[in-house]
# Entry
Amino acid sequence: MAKFPPGTWDQLRDYFSKIAPISVAEFEDLKPSFSPSYFPKNSFLLRQGELCLSMYFVVKGSFRIFHINDTGQELTRYFAFENKFGTNLTSMIEGSPSVENLQAVEPLFVLEIKKATFFQLVETIPQVNKIYRNILQNAYITSQRRIYDLQGMTALDRLKWLLEQYPLILSRIPSRLVASYLGISQYTLSRLKSEL
Amino acid sequence: MAKFPPGTWDQLRDYFSKIAPISVAEFEDLKPSFSPSYFPKNSFLLRQGELCLSMYFVVKGSFRIFHINDTGQELTRYFAFENKFGTNLTSMIEGSPSVENLQAVEPLFVLEIKKATFFQLVETIPQVNKIYRNILQNAYITSQRRIYDLQGMTALDRLKWLLEQYPLILSRIPSRLVASYLGISQYTLSRLKSEL
DNA sequence: TCAAAGTCTTGCTATAGAGCAAAACTTTCT
DNA sequence: AGAAAGTTTTGCTCTATAGCAAGACTTTGA
# Structure
């Protein structure tokens, strides 16, 4: 079942190249820190309350990061597609229990790196330090944008914005989850889609 | 006018101590990179559309970071009080025009460091690298928390949350701005305050 | 110290969007 | 292939909150 895609390591290599170029030899040294794993659709990489001990690089498929609040409502804040790193950074940084779940939305192939290994590489390998800084910066910029976009926009404007910014989300993710990403109800989203 | 508070440098030194301890001599080397400046209440440190070229360390007073959207509505996302760094990180990182304004809410004394100087120190001085990483991490964690707190919480819950998490905001910041921080109208906020 | 500007409160009205329930449609599994 | 499970759509109702306007209160500065 679930054969691991060829070219997996090339994807990771390309990711590095774009941010912190790395020699073939250096990359070979890094490889053993990552292990390929597969998660079936809907399975969980991490559950609310657990400690987040790994980062994941998406090779194929997608997963989402979401939170369930006290009223039982799901709030999704991120969809990770191919060639993106994703994890619960907060739990990893603070070593605190995760308030978020990571769940495969599509059948998911990832490269996993343990938190301890990762932070060790951050301290010892300049390229990884740079990668980490880049991840933090992007995570920050993305969530910043999200705050402004969620606040003070009507439901319809949010949908239009999503269509422009992240069309992948609309094409690959079930509506119910898209709604929980936009912070609107599935009913409203359904109605709005007919108005463009 | 506006005499600069004594102990200013101690505040910065203390900030470093907590995150990346630094020797007296090293700190002396760093000092010239920071310049004290004063902003009267309501004056702007940065306006939407400009490039963000500095970081600010608050010595006394407070400033806010906010955005004006197309419908003219103000959205505040951060209040910086004493002993916090604040800036438009996104504009600084990307070198892109700021979509945010920085404005003194109270009479404001800051230590200012130029972007170029700062990033140079990040690359050359390990302690500053660590400070930057810490700033990024905290900025990220804070905005993460904010996303969940804004989404799917009623106006009353938001107010209660603010009271718990950031009582300083309620005691030092005018209601109109608090409302723009919580993403609710000033009218609703006013009504809600009477219900506790 | 008092007028002017700014801020906060409160009554009223209007509305976007929530949420239930049932029907239509789609996917999954055996 | 067909039953069961899951998802999306749609009608209907209800509520939280926006936003105006007018009055009370507070701050500012000459």
